[in-house]
Design brief:
This protein is an alpha+beta fold and 282 residues long. It contains ten helices and eight strands. It has a six-stranded antiparallel beta sheet with strand order 1-2-3-4-5-6. A two-stranded antiparallel sheet has the order 7-8. The chain is globular. The C terminus is likely disordered.
Length: 282
């Protein structure tokens, strides 16, 4: 088992995945008092961005394993797509039919520019205590549940600030401090080295917290302790790809049916033709 990652001022709720610290804040956007929202949650994981070949391969494997029971209430994009797809479409994927696989590639949801790269992902947000306690109780009852996803829902609570930062790893290490400082100096929020998303008011504050957290990951050994969530990324990208593929096929079939219908309406009925509403036999 990996040694616990230690972060200054943070308590580990789930070793090497979920951390928390008490914070002091004024009323939030919904008007809750500080006592209702007094915990900052920090989540982190690392993942590799797959190639289009890997995404398509993942889809084929998922189809080969899939059951037709339908998606559950917490279904992923991939599970939803599998439930949407007609049986004959799944059969052609399963058997690697050339035309179908080539069509899948056209809808692949991978950004070629970052394919093959590895990222450290940080997510943080102020969480109302009642929501935090709900997550904790849920994980006690269902210890098999994914802690990152469960706490992730808590920090997306409406009205509270939250942010996500992606930092590209270079040979298993975070970029140098001068590189990070240069990007921050230009106020970068979207690049293949540093990306910032979410509901936050102060960019510099988010970046200051990010740098504070990154200082704990100054070696490959430290980064190796972080949970690898590549499987979730693969599943998500495979789901987006398959949904786009299924929607495209359905749309194409609809257009074909419409074209056949329009054509049949325009063509005369065999053995008859109509001129100015008067029927005349051939």
């Amino acid at each position: 088992m990996a040694e616990r990652i230690e972060l200054p001022d943070f308590e580990a709720l789930v070793d090497n995945q979920v951390y928390a610290r008490r914070v002091s804040m004024e009323k939030d956007k919904l008007g809750y008092e500080p006592s209702r929202a007094s915990t900052q949650i920090l989540l982190f994981g690392r993942h590799y961005i797959p190639t289009d070949d890997e995404v398509v391969g993942y889809i084929v494997e998922a189809v080969q394993r899939a059951s037709r029971n339908g998606p559950g209430s917490g279904a992923t994009h991939l599970e939803q797509a599998l439930s949407m797809a007609p049986n004959e479409m799944l059969a052609s994927i399963k058997s690697w039919e050339k035309e179908t696989i080539e069509h899948l590639y056209k809808h692949c949801a991978v950004e070629t520019s970052i394919s093959g790269m590895e990222y450290l992902q940080l997510k943080s947000g102020i969480c109302p205590d009642f929501a935090l306690e709900t997550v904790k109780e849920g994980l006690k009852k269902h210890p098999e549940a994914d802690a990152l996803k469960s706490y992730g829902k808590a920090i997306s609570y409406p009205g509270f600030e939250s942010w996500e930062v992606l930092v590209r790893l270079e040979n298993g290490l975070i970029p140098s401090e001068p590189t990070i400082d240069t990007l921050i100096g230009f106020g970068v929020t979207g690049s293949d080295v540093l990306e910032v998303n979410g509901r936050y008011g102060n960019y510099n504050l988010v970046m200051a917290q990010t740098k504070e957290i990154l200082s704990a990951f100054d070696s490959r050994e430290a980064i190796s302790k972080i949970k690898d969530v590549t499987g979730d990324i693969n599943s998500h990208l495979a789901g987006l790809t398959l949904i786009a593929f299924v929607n495209c096929i359905i749309e194409e079939r609809g257009e074909e049916r419409k074209s056949r219908t329009d054509k049949s309406q325009q063509e005369p009925i065999p053995g008859h033709f109509f001129i100015h509403g008067n029927e005349t036999k051939n």
